[in-house]
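Something for you to look into today, if you have time. Could you write out one complete protein record for me, on any chain you like? Leave the record below and I will have a look.
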Amino acid sequence: MRGFARSSRNFCQKGRDATQPMIEKFDITLNINGRDYAVRAEARRTLVDVIRDDCGLTGTHIGCEHGICGACTIILGDEAVRACLMFAVQANGKKIRTVEGLANGDALHPIQQAFIDHHGLQCGFCTPGFLMLAVNVLERQPDIGDEEMLDVLASNLCRCTGYQNIIKAVRAAAVEMRKAGA
């Protein structure tokens, strides 16, 4: 067994000095909320970690780190994605929207205002993920039906609200966003 461990170690580090770490960093550019961030990141770093730690945008939360809770939901291109399931290098050069990019100066986005008006948050931990998920679905499908909307919202988890006020808020935001788009 000892010989196997030694030979497999040599195989894994073939051509490398065994004392040097096997970490390679890549220069990438993340376009977040219309601003370019030049970042040097290891290939193994998740997008959520780079957004928070290297770009300083901490509105995107880290929850389960398995893609289940939705706290890290962002919009990549025109698709809501879990930033914990994606490597930062995969987002190189792509357009990213985070919760920090929703408001227009002091004017809140309709989804943000609706969450306030309809008490769609309590502790607030899941809120950024819900906001980004809801904005994405309402921008792509402004006339989404209740059944479909509930199915989409069910993909994010909230431990505080019981979901009813989140659903009310998204319905209200849908009305406001349709008015603004008309």
